[in-house]
Amino acid sequence: MEGMQPDTLLLLFKQYLQIEKNASPLTVTNYEKDILAFTAFMKQHGVMEYAAVSYVHVRSYLTELHERDYARRSIARKLSSLRSFYRFMVREEMLEHNPFTMASTPKLAKKLPGFLFPKEVESLLALPDTTRPLGRRDRAILEMLYASGMRVSELTGLTIRSVDVSAGTALVFGKGAKERYVPLGEHALRAYEHYIREGRSLLCKQHKNDALFVNVRGEPLTDRSVRRIINKYVEQASELLKVSPHTFRHTFATHLIENGADLRSVQEMLGHASISSTQIYTHVTRERMRLVYNQAHPRA
């Protein structure tokens, strides 16, 4: 795509995602893959400039994805990436129109988020060996994920100044470059203080930085590292548990709503832009209610 300098455009778009949207590295990578795949498709069909792409080309691309048996969720993601990319170019006055605005997103079946029961949470939280620095760190990670419902990217973005023990809160930097305070309960604060006093200080002897959670060399933990930590304890607890860092977020929201928290408060704590994203947890609690009823009622 000679006239539009695709590499430069893609670089500018990635910078926009990272700086203005505060997108995670994985999100940026996925956007890039989707855009490059579409660019290659258009080159094969003789379209060499982004400005030359029309709705007809968009329909042709979506048709090919369907014919290649891509899942609806994958097609929806690709469409979202390309729609955002073109919206960015229009906003920056590089293009006059966005041909993806007319394309409808495939309807997706509502997938209820997985969550843990209280006893499962307790068994996981008890696993780290808190006589060791790494165990103190891991206990603090698990406690804070469950106590606050923060995203794993928000957890790894915490610094040593993010937590206010007296207020019982942490300041997180969320999606869309939005800051918010999340609550931390007594257990999470206790685990945090134990880690700060007798974990982080020992891990950071060689490598000085302000990241809250660090590895054995004192370097900031990545999202992938946190997933490995959680998977390690899940394997110890049970092969039947399907847990990711996001499961703690789902569990946090589900347990709050089950115990009477209002949707607006949960929405604010999760950092959801729309309450419709939070409403899915009411479906989760209804499913749980139905399960309990079927197991407990003699005539269910």
Commentary on this structure:
The structure is a single chain. The chain has 300 residues and is mostly helical. It has two domains: 6-92, DNA polymerase, domain 1 (Orthogonal Bundle), CATH 1.10.150; 118-292, Intergrase catalytic core (hpI Integrase, Chain A, Orthogonal Bundle), CATH 1.10.443. It has helices spanning 6-19, 25-44, 55-67, 72-91, 118-125, 133-148, 152-156, 186-203, 223-237, 245-258, 263-270, 275-278, 280-296, and strands at 163-164, 169-173, 179-183. The chain is globular, with a radius of gyration of 23 Å. The model has no long low-confidence stretch (mean pLDDT 84).
Give the arrangement of secondary structure elements.
Blueprint: H1 6-19, H2 25-44, H3 55-67, H4 72-91, H5 118-125, H6 133-148, H7 152-156, E1 163-164, E2 169-173, E3 179-183, H8 186-203, H9 223-237, H10 245-258, H11 263-270, H12 275-278, H13 280-296
Antiparallel strand pairs: 1-2, 2-3
Helix pairs in contact: 1-2, 2-4, 6-8, 6-10, 10-13
